[in-house]
Known about the structure:
AB_hydrolase, AB_hydrolase_fold, single chain, Esterase EstB, AB_hydrolase_1
Amino acid sequence: MNSALQFKDSPYTTFMYETRVDLGNGIELHVETGGHPEHPPVLLIMGLGAQMLFWPDFFCKSLIDQGYRVIRYDNRDIGLSSKIRHKGPRLNTLKLMGRFALGLENQGAPYNLYDMAEDASLLIDRLGLEKVQVIGASMGGMIAQILAARYPEKVSKLGLLFTSNNQPLLPPPFPKQLFSLIGKPESTTEDGIVNHSIKLFKIIGSPGYVNQLEAMQTARKLYNRSYHPAGVLQQFLAILCTGSLLQLDRHITQPTLVVHGSRDRLLPPGHGKAVAKAIPDAKFELIDGMGHDIPPHFIPYLSGLFAHHFS
């Protein structure tokens, strides 16, 4: 581990430590790490508009207890990491979405997922790590695919959770789920944002496993930590301007486990299956009843799956 970095106790959990890492490319990432420094490191990459706290503490602790060192971070443009100010013209999101669905190329976003994978690669270097195991969720899984394909020397094994390779003509997200993710809250007061988040958790989450009280506490904690809707839109544009990862998947050589929930209506299971089919020798696991989230009920099984895959 890079000894020049100053770590302090995480304000959120007793077993994680936080720091800011200057990547040297104009971006600083806010990072938390936990577990024994000598244990094999697992880098967790989160999805669209999701701060690193979307990796539940219980999930991180489960991996730590199984002998791993866990690193979670805020992607650029979200949480406490650097925000990107964009001066360019406004893009027509709906037009980009149409082209994206057909597999046509889009351009003009302030950055794309290749840039975000570069952030992850630089983070591995700055933390003084040689090789990591990676778990990427949703958009984070897209970033993880690029990271594994482009920097094979830095990624030993790959875990992908409810993600996609965005190849053309995959089953589209259900409209309600998609628009809850990129839609605007009714009001921009704290309560308005919190209510919007709770609604989002319910709409994309695992049916019957979303705890209302927990969702409210999480939403409030995230709002008070950072609220930056412009970053969410820019990350969405990054996905649309990256396009299909199908060709790239064929170059992934690391042992890969793809996990998807049977009740995911944001990225239906066909997306995970397409990723597993495209990556040579990848394994696919469908979890019955799980949506596009990581509820406590599924964590012992999920963390066990990944820990076993990495061992």
